[in-house]
Write a structure and sequence with these properties.
Blueprint (H helix, E strand, L loop, with lengths): L7 H4 L2 H7 L4 E4 L13 H6 L6 E9 L10 E8 L12 H29 L15 E9 L7 E13 L2 E10 L13 E11 L7
Antiparallel strand pairs: 1-2, 2-3, 3-5, 4-7, 5-6, 6-7
Length: 208
């Protein structure tokens, strides 16, 4: 069965269903799950979009107020297949880091879109979507691994800004997982499995 980036798989898991039960949420597939003509986002739109890798992935955040300059925090939910194993039933550490980096990227992408819409509302820009560009690049990403991430289960990646300055954005993120060991999600305790701290930089025009 082909992957489907919808809320349906997460509504079948008690602990992720509770996250989605909060009122006034925006939920949708991340932009990075759609392959671009330039081959941009091919990692998460092709390689990691299979029944055995990341079958489903959605982003979640409270609907912002019209006066909010930007969205401070965004969550990404993903289901993990066993083809991502490092040790048996345990997510490879490199993929854990990729999830942290991607969660931070999702936060930036959504805010890039929001900035465009606010400019359109003020008459400072036109178009239904912002112009495509190179976006930001990861300057550094420090990862702390606290406990294994189980495959055959879901994860919750939450990312938030700690500082924004001109072309630089400092972001932190956590990979969280709920349920009991053994591959079956249950209500259980939701724990932090890994933490990340990153700096992202938007390149100067003409530098790449």
């Amino acid at each position: 069965m082909a992957p489907s980036d919808t809320t349906a798989p997460f509504l079948r898991i008690p602990w992720t269903r509770s996250l989605l039960s909060k009122p006034n949420l925006i939920t949708r597939a991340p932009d990075s799950r759609t392959l671009k003509p330039t081959n941009e986002d091919s990692l998460f739109a092709t390689t990691l979009k299979t029944p055995d890798t990341i079958r489903s992935c959605i982003l979640v955040y409270p609907r912002p107020e019209a006066t909010d300059e930007y969205i401070q925090e965004i969550s990404t939910l993903a289901t993990l297949g066993f083809a991502l194993d490092g040790h048996p039933g345990i997510l490879h550490g490199g993929i854990v880091a990729s999830l942290l980096d991607e969660g931070m990227g999702v936060l930036q992408t959504v805010n890039h879109e929001r900035d465009h819409f606010l400019k359109v509302a003020r008459g400072e820009a036109e178009g239904e979507s912002p112009e495509k560009g190179l976006g930001s690049f990861t300057a550094f990403l420090n990862v702390t691994y606290e406990r294994p991430v189980r495959t055959g289960a879901a994860v919750h990646v939450v990312a938030w800004y700690t500082r924004r300055e001109d072309r630089k954005q400092w972001i932190e993120a956590e990979v969280r997982q709920g349920g009991v060991p053994g591959g079956e999600d249950d209500v259980g305790e939701v724990v932090v499995c890994a933490r990340g701290k990153g700096l992202f930089v938007v390149p100067r025009v003409g530098k790449l």
